[in-house]
Structures are given as structure tokens and as C-alpha cells.
Amino acid sequence: MYENFNLKFYLYLKMKKFILVLLKAICGCIGIVAIYIICGYFIPFIGVAEKPVSEPRNIEAYILTNGVHTDIVVPIKSAEIDWSKEILFENTLSKRTDFKYLAFGWGDKGFYLETPTWAELKPSVAFKAAFWLGESAMHCTFYDEMTEGKDCVKLHLTKSEYLNLIRFISQKFERDQNGNPILIETDAVYGKNDAFYDAVGSYSFLKTCNTWTNEGLKAAGQKAALWTPSDFGIFRHYRN
Fold it and tell me: Considering Cα of 113, then 236, then 229, then 156, what sign does the dihedral take?
């Protein structure tokens, strides 16, 4: 009887210790999420100013959001680059060749290819994306025209700024032995005028699609947030 009491007491202590550790872990996770939300909201208010230039700003580009995800949009053909030689029209379902603009969005490959809607988001995909465990992809979408509004902001770039932006975008593509972007063969496109390509780097809760766009704006000498995981952090500097 005395041995049974000792065993029960031992198991009680073990269970108590386990519950305390579990509670600490849960509280720690809640604390991390809370800190992330607070930082994700307040840090974007710290702005990075547009760099002063002496060259004329005669190249038009755009930043575009769907309410969650942001893209950088550039003219397909300019004196600086012809994007259609790298991002081929024929890789889209429409096969059209008369578009004027091309949007670039970097993000988690699993999100792009396995999550058509938020309702279909799998916990495994979300976990991999949050913690550097997944691959990344570039989503390239062709457009006929861009219309300025609350979800689309026009940028005016100098030649040097655009060349820096070109370099920033180009370096994010995974490339084959011939230096060409690697097309992802998939039916998970969002429309008739887009395609996916393998990209460099891993998505995480610290480096999101919007963080990438924000870094692109910095590379091009444009207004940006110090850091932001959301589209709000970018657009608040352009909606004032």
C-alpha cells in the first residue's frame, strides 16, 4: 500500500511538471505571437525616406495589393530591359503577346500552389511557410493596363533606380544552367495571364511576400517601411 502511494505521488509530480511545462510553452507561444503582432503593426510606422536624385523620374512602375499580398509592377519593355525575353508570354494559358505590364510577387511555394483560397489553407503548409521549411516561388502576372487607386500606387523612377529594381527582381529567380528562370509546371495558376517560377530564399513569418516588396522599394530608392510583414505597412506611406 505504501509503495502504491509513492507511485501515485511520483506520477502526480510528473504530471504536474508536465502540465507546468506545457502551460509555459503555451504562454511562450502566445507571447511570441503577441510581440509579432505588435511589431508587425507599429514598426511599419517607421518610414524609410525616398532617396533624393538628380536624374529625371520618367519610368513608371507600380505597387499592387489584393488586400493581403503585394506585387511590384513594371513595364514589360523599356530601354533598360525587355522582360518578355525572360518571362515568356508562351508560359501563360492565354499565350497573348500584347501586354504592357508585368507584376512580380515573391512568396511561399506551398501557399501559391496548394492554397487557392484561405479556406483551403492546410496547417502543414502554414507551418512550413512560417518557419523557413518551404521553398519559394515567383508569381508573374501580365496586365494590359494599370489603374491607380487605393490598391494600386504609381511610382516614378529614374533610370538608375529602375536598374537597381531590375537587379533586385532578377536576383530572386532560381535559374537553370543557361541562366533562364525555371518555370514551375503547374495547373495552379490564378488566371490565363500568369505563371510561376522557382525562386531563391525561404518564406517565413519574418520574411513575407510584403517584406520582399518593401525591400524592393528600398532597393529602388522609394518610400518604404523600416520592416513590414503586411501590405498595410507599405501602403500607409503612400496613402497619406
Answer: positive
- What is the pLDDT, as a whole number, of residue 8? 58
In degrees rounded to 5, what are phi and psi of residue 111?
-60, -50
| pTM (global) more than 0.70 | yes
State the amino acid at position 147 in one-letter form.
Answer: T
β-pair partners for 47: 225
DSSP E strand stretches across 35-125: 47-48, 59-65, 70-75, 101-108
pLDDT at 25 over 80: no
Domain boundaries, the chain: 2-44, 46-235
Segment 58-87 mean pLDDT: 96
| 230 class by beta-carbon count within 10 Å (0-12 exposed, 13-18 middle, 19+ buried) | buried
In one-letter notation, the amino acid at residue 19 is I
